[in-house]
Write a structure and sequence with these properties.
The chain is of the alpha/beta class. A four-stranded parallel beta sheet has the order 2-1-3-4, with helices on both faces.
Length: 140
Protein backbone atom coordinates (compact mmCIF):
# COMPACT_ATOMS: atom_id res chain seq x y z
CA UNK A 1 0.00 0.00 0.00
CA UNK A 2 1.33 3.40 -1.00
CA UNK A 3 1.86 6.03 1.65
CA UNK A 4 1.33 8.75 -0.96
CA UNK A 5 -1.75 10.82 -0.19
CA UNK A 6 -3.44 12.29 -3.26
CA UNK A 7 -5.48 15.40 -2.50
CA UNK A 8 -7.85 17.29 -4.76
CA UNK A 9 -8.24 20.79 -3.35
CA UNK A 10 -11.53 22.43 -4.38
CA UNK A 11 -11.94 26.18 -4.25
CA UNK A 12 -13.79 29.05 -5.84
CA UNK A 13 -12.47 30.27 -9.16
CA UNK A 14 -10.58 33.49 -8.44
CA UNK A 15 -11.74 35.30 -11.59
CA UNK A 16 -15.36 34.49 -10.73
CA UNK A 17 -14.73 35.56 -7.12
CA UNK A 18 -13.22 38.86 -8.25
CA UNK A 19 -16.29 39.61 -10.36
CA UNK A 20 -18.87 38.41 -7.82
CA UNK A 21 -17.42 38.53 -4.32
CA UNK A 22 -14.88 41.35 -4.22
CA UNK A 23 -17.29 43.36 -2.06
CA UNK A 24 -17.03 40.64 0.63
CA UNK A 25 -13.28 39.99 0.76
CA UNK A 26 -9.94 40.99 -0.73
CA UNK A 27 -9.68 38.45 -3.56
CA UNK A 28 -6.01 39.14 -4.48
CA UNK A 29 -4.99 38.76 -0.82
CA UNK A 30 -6.91 35.48 -0.51
CA UNK A 31 -5.46 34.22 -3.80
CA UNK A 32 -1.91 34.90 -2.57
CA UNK A 33 -2.58 33.08 0.72
CA UNK A 34 -4.18 30.09 -1.02
CA UNK A 35 -1.25 29.77 -3.45
CA UNK A 36 1.25 30.01 -0.59
CA UNK A 37 -0.60 27.31 1.37
CA UNK A 38 -0.90 25.11 -1.72
CA UNK A 39 2.86 25.38 -2.32
CA UNK A 40 3.40 24.34 1.32
CA UNK A 41 1.05 21.37 0.84
CA UNK A 42 2.72 20.37 -2.43
CA UNK A 43 6.16 20.38 -0.75
CA UNK A 44 5.07 18.04 2.06
CA UNK A 45 6.66 14.60 1.71
CA UNK A 46 4.09 11.99 0.74
CA UNK A 47 1.52 14.43 -0.67
CA UNK A 48 0.53 14.84 -4.30
CA UNK A 49 -2.14 17.43 -4.97
CA UNK A 50 -4.09 19.37 -7.56
CA UNK A 51 -6.40 22.36 -7.37
CA UNK A 52 -9.86 22.26 -8.93
CA UNK A 53 -11.59 25.62 -9.28
CA UNK A 54 -15.37 25.87 -9.25
CA UNK A 55 -17.49 28.61 -10.76
CA UNK A 56 -21.03 28.35 -9.48
CA UNK A 57 -22.38 29.96 -12.68
CA UNK A 58 -20.74 27.42 -15.00
CA UNK A 59 -23.15 25.19 -16.86
CA UNK A 60 -22.28 21.53 -16.33
CA UNK A 61 -20.17 22.28 -13.24
CA UNK A 62 -21.26 19.20 -11.31
CA UNK A 63 -20.91 16.85 -14.28
CA UNK A 64 -17.37 18.15 -14.84
CA UNK A 65 -16.58 17.86 -11.14
CA UNK A 66 -17.92 14.29 -10.99
CA UNK A 67 -15.77 13.38 -14.00
CA UNK A 68 -12.68 14.86 -12.29
CA UNK A 69 -13.42 12.81 -9.18
CA UNK A 70 -13.84 9.60 -11.21
CA UNK A 71 -10.64 10.33 -13.15
CA UNK A 72 -8.72 10.34 -9.89
CA UNK A 73 -5.03 11.01 -9.51
CA UNK A 74 -2.89 9.06 -11.95
CA UNK A 75 -5.80 6.70 -12.46
CA UNK A 76 -6.27 5.95 -8.76
CA UNK A 77 -9.01 7.32 -6.50
CA UNK A 78 -8.31 10.52 -4.63
CA UNK A 79 -7.48 9.74 -1.02
CA UNK A 80 -8.83 13.10 0.07
CA UNK A 81 -10.87 15.94 -1.35
CA UNK A 82 -10.41 19.24 0.44
CA UNK A 83 -13.03 21.96 0.26
CA UNK A 84 -11.82 25.47 0.97
CA UNK A 85 -13.35 28.14 3.16
CA UNK A 86 -14.56 30.21 0.20
CA UNK A 87 -16.95 27.42 -0.77
CA UNK A 88 -18.21 26.62 2.71
CA UNK A 89 -17.76 29.84 4.66
CA UNK A 90 -20.63 31.84 3.18
CA UNK A 91 -24.35 31.19 3.39
CA UNK A 92 -24.55 32.24 -0.28
CA UNK A 93 -22.52 29.14 -1.15
CA UNK A 94 -24.51 26.59 0.89
CA UNK A 95 -26.18 24.96 -2.12
CA UNK A 96 -22.85 24.72 -3.97
CA UNK A 97 -21.15 23.32 -0.86
CA UNK A 98 -23.83 20.69 -0.27
CA UNK A 99 -23.81 19.56 -3.89
CA UNK A 100 -20.01 19.28 -3.93
CA UNK A 101 -20.01 17.21 -0.71
CA UNK A 102 -22.75 14.92 -1.99
CA UNK A 103 -20.99 14.51 -5.34
CA UNK A 104 -17.79 13.48 -3.54
CA UNK A 105 -19.73 11.05 -1.36
CA UNK A 106 -21.51 9.54 -4.36
CA UNK A 107 -18.51 9.32 -6.72
CA UNK A 108 -15.66 8.33 -4.38
CA UNK A 109 -17.15 7.28 -1.02
CA UNK A 110 -13.81 5.88 0.17
CA UNK A 111 -12.18 9.32 -0.03
CA UNK A 112 -11.89 11.53 3.03
CA UNK A 113 -13.65 14.86 2.83
CA UNK A 114 -11.38 17.51 4.32
CA UNK A 115 -12.14 21.12 5.25
CA UNK A 116 -9.52 23.86 5.31
CA UNK A 117 -9.54 27.38 6.68
CA UNK A 118 -10.00 29.76 8.22
CA UNK A 119 -8.37 28.37 11.36
CA UNK A 120 -6.08 25.87 9.65
CA UNK A 121 -3.87 25.79 6.58
CA UNK A 122 -4.32 23.26 3.81
CA UNK A 123 -1.37 21.23 5.09
CA UNK A 124 -2.68 21.27 8.67
CA UNK A 125 -6.02 20.03 7.39
CA UNK A 126 -4.34 17.16 5.53
CA UNK A 127 -2.16 16.32 8.57
CA UNK A 128 -5.30 16.19 10.71
CA UNK A 129 -6.82 13.56 8.41
CA UNK A 130 -3.64 11.66 7.50
CA UNK A 131 -1.46 11.67 10.64
CA UNK A 132 1.51 10.05 8.88
CA UNK A 133 1.92 13.21 6.76
CA UNK A 134 4.33 15.68 8.31
CA UNK A 135 5.56 18.96 6.93
CA UNK A 136 9.05 19.07 5.52
CA UNK A 137 11.79 20.25 7.89
CA UNK A 138 12.45 23.39 5.84
CA UNK A 139 8.84 24.60 6.32
CA UNK A 140 8.86 24.22 10.11
Amino acid sequence: MSNIVSILSVGLDFDWSLANLSHKFDVPKVRARVFKEFDELRSAPGVECEIYYVNSDKEGLFDDFAAKLREGHRGKPWKGVMIGWGVRGSSDMTSLFETLVNTIKDEIPQSRIIFSGPGSTQLESVERNFPHIKRSSESI
